[in-house]
Task: structure prediction
Amino acid sequence: MIQSMTGFGKAVAELPNRKITVEIKSLNSKQLDLSTRIPSIYREKEMEIRSEIARRLERGKIDFNIYVESIGKESNSQINKPVVEGYYRQIKDVSENLGIALPSDWFQVLLRMPDAVKTEIVELDKEETDTLLQTVKKAIDQLQEFRIQEGEMLQKLFYEKIGNIAALLKETTPFEKERIEKIKARIHDALSKIENFDYDKNRFEQEMIFYIEKLDINEEKHRLDNHLKYFIETMENGKGQGKKLGFISQEIGREINTLGSKSNHVELQKIVVRMKDELEQIKEQVLNVM
Result:
């Protein structure tokens, strides 16, 4: 079963004085592109968290966030009284010297000033560390479940689109003999319109056979059929096949393009256009596959 690179996971844990929320989102990317926002209180665990994400998610553009909310009565943040008093005196002096009105809401102004609020550095205990890492793992688990569900949808889509191309390939068979006869008739008709033109009929037949062989599409049809089967076989091998499926879809495209350039038949060209439409939908979605 293939997996999508798209996913979202969220997990929440509550401690006696804090609420931890972990969110992780993944989009498609050729490599692992990891962006993290981790509060300073948990910064010492950043490398461990990044390693866990890289090990389990492998590829994708990953946005990882930890949010911390204080829920206890005590807070690690305190008003820095000497600093606030200093700002208060300075603002009053500036007001008197420059004739500028004093602020109507002193607290709103003073508490926004740099270093007006200080936060005590708190060492993490083992319980909080374990809770944090478990919450991170739960969020990753949820994202992986999302990826599996998305992968199932992608797999159904690929079965449908590959099946459609295979069915269209079979539709080309009735037109092959008709196509060759029309090409021959067109050439004979063009020659008959040239006055007083004589040619070696044996040589003409040899050249005609050579020309028809160049327009033969059986080899391209055989290769295209093999590529379609290989796509399904690769997809059923499990996750981690995204890049390979992308390469196979490129090969499918080459054979379809060759069919179009050699077809020389209106109905065959219509079939080729429909094949290309199905393939474009495959190419668009294969970018999301792990």
